[in-house]
Amino acid sequence: MLLPNVLWAPVNVILTLALRGGFSPVALAGTRWTSFAVLLGLALTLPPYRRLMAAVWPTRTDTVRLIAYGFCFFGPAHAIYYFALSKTSSFEGTILGTTSPLWVTALALIFLREFPTRLRMAGIAVGTVGAYIVSVGWNTPRLDAGHSFGNLMYLGAVILECVAGVLSIGIARRSSGITALWYQVAGAAGFLCLAPFIAPATFPVTFPSLTASSAVAFGCLAYLILIAGFINFGIWYRLAERVPISLLALSLLLQPPIAAVFGVLVLHEKFSPEVLAGTTLILLGLAIGTLKGKLKNSADSISNP
């Protein structure tokens, strides 16, 4: 669970660089997820890849559901993410993103009837405090008042993506993670390709010019497709077949301190006492959350709808 969080940690910075490089939000989102859907679809035609990922195709009903989850939740979430980042900052997005473990755990309880242990809930609580300290420090969050609309949109996108993920993982556990991911991403790509035609004023499409100065933007796009997409999501959905969602959610709290380390190494930022204290709490939360404990209702049981 460490590798995906390491590779996902700098995504908000990479998205911001790509948007500044000339991509419009829906052009970036649409190109990323359509390319990813095509790449994953091609990979699934290869028997060695299917064996590696233990691919099992979902039923026709589940296939329709997955495409719908992508079209109605995952695709809109990413269109909103990228648009919101043009109205707010990657730092503020990171703050709002630290709420995702709470949403995932609550949604897994509602939709999948997965009951986390008390220890895991305690671990999420401690880790969330640590992620908050890494992102904000010891004070109350100072989200720029001028960014309020962008912040609200970003939080809405976090919730939408959590809904898509939890619902899709429910199906992945009776088929396979990689096939569930492909159908979900295909649905998302469909939404992102249609959105500019349905609402061109809201979703304008612009791309960087093919010049040397746009190399960074296209490099960011390649990272989003290949590393943050093909590799990371493939690993994540493979893990989700057998790892309790509450534990996966807990591991997401690793991203703020990893992003801070990324800032130190790449952007030459200072490693503050707040980052050290918050990271310590996150590691403590992970330790608590992975301890064996009794579940209130059947140990990490899943009752798929």
Write up this protein.
The chain is mainly α. It has a domain at 9-115 and 142-247. The protein has 14 helices and no strands. The longest helix is centred in the N-terminal third of the chain and has 26 residues, at 60-85. The protein is globular, with a radius of gyration of 19 Å. It starts with a helix and ends in a 16-residue tail after the last helix.
Short description:
With 305 residues, the protein is mainly α. It has helices at 2-8, 11-20, 25-43, 47-52, 60-85, 90-97, 100-112, 118-136, 148-172, 177-198, 215-240, 245-251, 255-266, 273-289.
Pick out its properties.
0% strand; 71% helix; disordered C terminus; globular; 305 residues; single chain; 14 helices; mainly alpha
Which whole number gives the mean pLDDT? 83
User: How many helical stretches?
Assistant: 14
Biggest sheet layout = none
N/C terminus separation: 26 Å
Helix content: over 70%
According to DSSP, the number of beta strands is: 0
Shape: globular
Strand content bin: under 5%
Structural category: mainly alpha
Unreliable spans: 293-305
Order of helices and strands: HHHHHHHHHHHHHH
Radius of gyration: 19 Å
